[in-house]
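hey can u run this one w/ zinc ion bound, need the structure tokens asap thx
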Amino acid sequence: MESLFARLALLPEGWRENVRIGLAADGTIADVETGSEAVADEGVGILMPGFSNVHSHAFQRALAGRAEVAGDSDDSFWTWRDLMYRLADRLTPKDLTSISRLLYVEMLEAGYTAVGEFHYLHHDPAGELYEEPIAMSLALAHAAAEAGISLALLPVLYRYSDFGARPPEPAQRRFSTTPEQFVAMVHRLRDRLDDCIVGVAFHSLRAVDVGSMRDVIAALGQHPGFPVHIHVAEQAREVEACLQLCGQRPVEMLLLEDLPDENWCLIHATHINDAELRGIAASGAVAGLCPTTEANLGDGIFPLRSFLQCEGRFAIGSDSHVSLDPFEELRWLEYGQRLQSGKRLRAVTGNGRHAGFELVRSAAVNGAAALSLNAGQIAPGQRANLLVLDPNAALVDTVGEDNILDALVFAPRRAPVDSVMVDGRWVLRQGRHPLRDLAVAEYRACCERLRLA
Ligand SMILES: [Zn+2]
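ok here u go:
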């Protein structure tokens, strides 16, 4: 297919009618013409850019719905983490492919066209290198290629169990590597995977010291197109421990070290003060927010409005996959602010007027940027990662075009995505991925193998 005609398309300047989109052979958008006559290879109704999911731990899909049973003591992020470690301990590369194949099918059906995989489950259950040292990464890449989602693989450096360079706990043996092993792993991934972005992630300041971060970046070379992600300030306890042992707060430390720049994505950054908030915004780094997971784990609420007032950039991720719906992430993001402030429309800070529009546009554009993907807008040169909306979802044809995105975020609706294009190729039509039945069957078999049922 060389061209697409949309009755209504979300362009950088807003909704436009009768838009003809030329597609280049390399999967990018060649040209965009508004007010066009309907002469194209295919006509669609309402077209918008796909979302980039900037933060995923694929294997945690198998924990969703299994971690809501009260334990003996107060349940918290840390008791949830014990359950997560127990699952991580048992997975083989085959299990990881089965879980992530279904996950990526579900993401595409929900409107995510790209995913950043924050991947730390590197080694075999004994903590030894697999014969193929990147076997677990290849399992993810294989699943992403089958499903047809754009992948930014972010292998994770994980050295320590806590601040003060404490050695990894037994449950962390599958994650931990030396910086030298890690750099070799990234080189091997770059050699083997030429159809996905390969960046890096540092698990957290608990797990990686600043010196190791600098060594890794120096060895790999920091450059545009090389995303660097880190979990930071997710839990108040983590901020306290950092302050006690290092004399600085986590984000404060990263900023004083002058590490974050526009290639960095700070995941969660929930517990930050005003100076840290301004520092992140000024650095150009993206805040990678995961509102449904942050709610599920009791993390806290990111200071979105103040961050937007400093022209900070945010993106969204599904993290532990308690939800796979970008519109729901955005609804929770806005509602957290409203519940906290007692006011409405907290994501509207500039010249915009519509909360849904502002939230969706920021997430699409900054999500792609955080994964170093040239995507997130319907414009020449961008990758053709596109969604066709179902006009019956949220009855969007009844609300007027200016309110379409508000309705998708804030009105009752069923699944709003009809068709999904990734790199100029349709990967699903009529809301259903062609691999869904196979992916579900293999996921069920995996759960049986692991005796999760
Ligand atoms: Zn995470």
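The first strand starts at residue 3 and ends at 11. anyway lmk if its weird
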